[in-house]
Amino acid sequence: MAINNTENINTWLSHLHEETKFSISVDCVIFGYDEAALKVLLMDCNMPPYEGKKSLIGDLLQKQETTDEAAKRILENRTLLTDLYLEQVNVYSNPFRHPLGRVITLAYYSLINIEDYENQIVDAENKQLEWKTLATIDDLAFDHLEIVKDAYARLQRTVREVPIGFSMLPKKFSLIQLQNFYETVLDIELDRRNFRRKLMALGLLIDLKEFQDNVAHRPAKLYSFDFEKYKQKKNIGTLNFEI
After folding, report:
1. What number of other Cβ atoms are within 10 A of residue 78's Cβ?
2. In sequence order, what are the residues at sequence separation of 6 or more whose Cβ sits closer than 8 angstroms to the Cβ of residue 75?
3. Using 50, 70 and 90 to split pLDDT, how confident is the model at 14?
4. 189: confidence class by pLDDT, cuts 50, 70, 90
5. Phi, psi of 130 (to 5 degrees)
6. Is cis: bond before 99, omega within 30 of 0?
7. Which of 3, 96, 120, 184 has the fewest CB atoms within 10 Å of its CB?
8. Residue 67: pLDDT above 60?
9. Cα distances (angstroms) measured from residue 210 to each of 3, 6, 101, 183, 223
10. In this model, does residue 232 exceed pLDDT 90?
11. DSSP 8-state symbol, 92
12. Greater confidence, 90 or 74?
């Protein structure tokens, strides 16, 4: 808005106050993996006109917090989990995206191993939470389907370059479990020999000298990921982690 000779800064501020009223929210795409499928944690929506639909887990930004702090608060309130991996996806600012008025949202995604944390997931507002397989999600409240698709695309890019996927696996895993994870997230089929050769070349897997137990098939060797070695290589610029 241009200020002419008859307007002063107070007039401009008055217009600014009236014309730009909006709220900011944070929505979290919580991806979970259970060795069978990639899933998203959703909640019931009771806001017209979206009653009966599922939505992402989110909340309005509070006055004294950053968006990162809001995302952490939302995740902790809903799942009782702290220190989860968080990555901002995008800003969604369509003026008509929310039925109650102008609400701009910042979307984040997070990753958890469903088996490890299933019993810790709670809902402070007594709205039903549900893990839904990503491939079956075709309709959500607001613009949340668009947000989920964008978050999934970001996850697929990031998981190739950063070892975030190891947080979704057991602490002790086999190479086939690891390959299954990457094939599920990337929605591709990987050549077994090339995949294992590339991983071993990174020098970041610790051979635990242990084997699986209580399995119907031939027990596989177990490994863990060397996070300390990864940090060291990353800090000195000698790492090219790319799947």
Report:
1. 23
2. 28, 30, 57, 81, 82, 84, 86, 110
3. low
4. very high
5. -150, 135
6. no
7. 96
8. yes
9. 73, 81, 57, 24, 8
10. no
11. E
12. 90
Q: For the chain, list the domains and their CATH numbers.
A: 9-159 (3.90.79.10), 169-235 (1.10.10.10)
Specify the 3-state DSSP secondary structure of 118.
helix
pTM of the shown model: 0.85
User: Two tokens at 164?
Assistant: 């975030």
> Does the CA dihedral 78-79-83-85 come out positive or negative?
negative
Structure confidence at residue 136 (pLDDT): 96
Which amino acid is located at 215 in the chain?
V
Longest dimension (CA), the chain: 84
State the Cα–Cα distance between residues 73 and 188, nearest whole angstrom: 34
What does the pLDDT read at residue 66? 96
For residues 184 and 28, what is the distance between their CA atoms, to the nearest angstrom?
A: 21
Residues pairing with 143 in the sheet: none
**Mean of pLDDT over the chain:** 85
143-166 burial: b if 16+ Cβ within 10 Å, else e = bbbebbebbbebbeebbeeebebb
| CB-based contact 204:225 (threshold 8 Å) | yes
With 0-12 / 13-18 / 19 or more C-beta atoms within 10 angstroms meaning exposed / middle / buried, residue 222 is buried
pLDDT digit string (tens) for 100-109? 888 999 999 9
CA distance 76 to 92: 23
